[in-house]
Amino acid sequence: MSPQPKFVIKNLSFYYGGKRAIHDLSLDIAANEILSVIGPANSGVTTLLRALNRLGDLVPGARMEGEILMDGKSVYDPDVSVTELRRKIGMVFEVPTPLPMSIFDNVAYGPRLIGKANGKSVAESVERVLRKAALWDDVKDRLKTPAMSLSGGQQQRLCFARVLALDPEVVLLDRPCSGLDPISTAKIEESLSQLKEQYTIVVAPHNVQQAARISDRVAFMLTGSLIEENRNVEIFSRPKDQRTSDYVTGRFG
Amino acid sequence: MRRFKEKLSGRIFFVLALSSISALALITVFIVAKGAPIFVKVGVRDFVFGMSWAPGHGEFGIFPMIVGTLSVTLGAAVLGVPLGICCSIFLTEFAPSVLKSVFRPAIQLLAGIPSVVYGFWGLIFVVPFIRDRIGGPGLSILAGSVILAIMILPTVIMISEVSILALPRQYKQNALALGLTHWQTIRSVMLPAAKSGIVAAVILGVGRAVGETMAVIMVLGNAVALPKSILDPVRTLTTNIGIEMGYASGEHQQALFATGIVLFILIMILNSAAQFITRRK
Amino acid sequence: MRISPRAGERIVKVLIWAAAMLVMAVLVFIVAYILAKGLHVIDWRFLASAPSNMGRSGGISTTIIGTLMVTVTAVVIAAPLGIGTAFYLAEYTRENFVTKIIRFSAESLAGIPSIVYGLFGLIFFVVYLDMRWSVLSGGLTLALMILPTVIRTSEEAIKAVPYIYREVSFSLGATKWQTIIKAVFPSALRGIANGILLSVGRCIAETAAVILTAGSTLRMPTSLFSPTRTMAVHFYILAREGISMENAYGTAALLIILIFLINVVANTLINRFVAKSR
């Protein structure tokens, strides 16, 4: 593990109104690793991901306790700009969510927000990230067509490229392959392993097998609590907790 | 700078959102300010219940017009409401999809046609028909009711339809599964469940009838007298304003604004009732 | 005598079909009658030449221009107010006391009869603000009248934009303002445009409110401060005073055609809108 973790999460609890979604969770996330957070439905995985980029703030009545430090600084620090924070922490959602505009405009959405309107440099970075997301060859001749016309797998890779166009430090992926065909899933998983050189990646995989395939480390959550976290091989071969063992072997979830 | 812009944009939207409040306030204040003096001079009771309207002689009683408005509106509701509810049931339950795709735009067109056109059509067709086949001068409560019944149909149909469509699908499926016939399901399950929406539709339709001016101005005959039958001509609150506003001045004009106040109150009561009923859900 | 459920079923079905067909028949009759009497009046000369002799002869060009000017004025004023209100209600606040008052005001405005708008416009714009009978007075009055429609349809359109679009935009580092302008507004545009079009239809069809505020002169309006007569008012005066039935029918036919076209365009917009958001 690198000396300075990318994220330090200390005693995090997260509430939606009176309902507690995360209970007293502490976890370090190292830079340039792929961390999978697994757990059955409603175990708080999505909430954890959305706490990291403060997207959870948007839910009316949401409230958190504890601390999330990114590079040693609280993400809730008053002089942290939430928009800059979110640009540093890109997010890919469960359903492919192209915005109703062209392929090009989707990828350029982030860069244009901060006034990078220079046509040439935007076009270059669009091409660069589409290549990274293994989508360039599919779309290079129809960048101006609506993004909705792409297949589900292509749409999700477009969303991935859209995140990379932000030049983020961290990429969060919330069950990014749940609706996708095996080929698209393989392409996305492949790009993930190449990209961890540059980014810290936190992913909520859509099943245990995917966690085993792609991650360096795995954290297992149940009903809002962190049950255990460990290196990939360890957690599957020698789980310390009976519940982890039951989950990874498919007894429930 | 960006945070400043953020704050500013929120403020701007808020200010824009105040437009409807200010509009309502302005309308209320100005109409009341202009019409209130006549209440003071004549007295609210004599104004509302007075039988004689002779602005030239300083007599301002609008009771015949209140009766006119209520009778024409009641007539429109009696004719239009059952027809409208039947149409909404037709649209949601019986219409083949081809007919639906014709019927809906047709109802929209019905809603969009200028009210003066309805009034004109009434004058050309309904009035002579009543005069020749039923009796009286033709220009009558009945003629106004027929025209208004047609005009409130879109309101009644569209809002009832929405509230029937909003019902959970299980209601119907469960009722049919229990062995109820289609009509029994509609009558004993769906209509009761959609009741508040349908009632709101009726009230809004009635509100439209109360407020309509130009259509009824042409077919009511506009006589200021208590009607004895539905074949008699009447004047409504709206038509009183519509007819005389062009040349009124001084106290006469104030009395017309006061007529507007009475109309305004009537409408606000109806609207609040509709809002209350739809909110209660 | 008890009627068997099956017989009852059939009777009810017949009744409901009969009601629907009756309504259709009335509509078709009204529209067909006006078109039959008025369509042949409409030709290029009718549209392009000014009315003469009180409208007894000549065309209706000045009333077309008047209608256009009053309507455009109304929409230009009501659209920003209404769309802004809709964004405030849908995006900037949760349901609270203020939104309750705003909603109550909008719904109340929606119910106010057009003649009362006319009274208000007359006393406030025409007299109090001394704008006289003018395109501006008429446009402002109509703007208030269509405001609730613009608010309601815009708010519905904004609420129909999938919530995830906002999340995506925020997650890409957009501010609220950027999210609204770049992600939400374009997606809601068709729905908003649909509402604006319906409002245009209402402006064109309105008589009571404009006759009291814009006047009824047949002169060609030259500025926002000129008095004018709209097509609906023209029709009303021609028909009521029996000036020219021929020209009255022609004007009415044109009004119906306009409303029909507006409805067609509005429906196309909304159908595409629905298809796209699915």
Task: Write out key terms for the chains shown.
heterotrimer; A: 253 residues; alpha/beta; Rossmann fold; 6-stranded mixed beta sheet; 4-stranded antiparallel beta sheet; 10 helices; globular; C: 278 residues; mainly alpha; MetI-like fold; 2 domains
Structure commentary:
The complex is a heterotrimer of chains A (253), B (281) and C (278). With 253 residues, chain A is an alpha/beta fold. Chain A has helices spanning 45-52, 82-88, 103-113, 119-132, 136-139, 152-164, 182-195, 208-214, 232-237, 242-248, and strands spanning 7-16, 19-29, 34-38, 62-70, 73-74, 89-92, 170-174, 200-204, 217-222, 225-231. In chain A, strand 4 (62-70) and strand 5 (73-74) form a beta hairpin. In chain A, helix 3 (103-113) runs parallel beside helix 6. In chain A, 44% of the residues are buried. Chain B has 12 helices and 2 strands; from the N terminus they run H-H-E-E-H-H-H-H-H-H-H-H-H-H. Chain B has a two-stranded antiparallel sheet. The model of chain B has no long low-confidence stretch (mean pLDDT 92). A two-stranded antiparallel ribbon of chain C has the order 1-2. The A-C interface holds A 53, 55, 58, 60, 83-84, 86-87, 90-91, 93, 95, 97, 99-101, 109-110, 113-114, 148, 159, 162-163, 166 and C 94, 164-175, 178, 182-183, 186-187, 276.
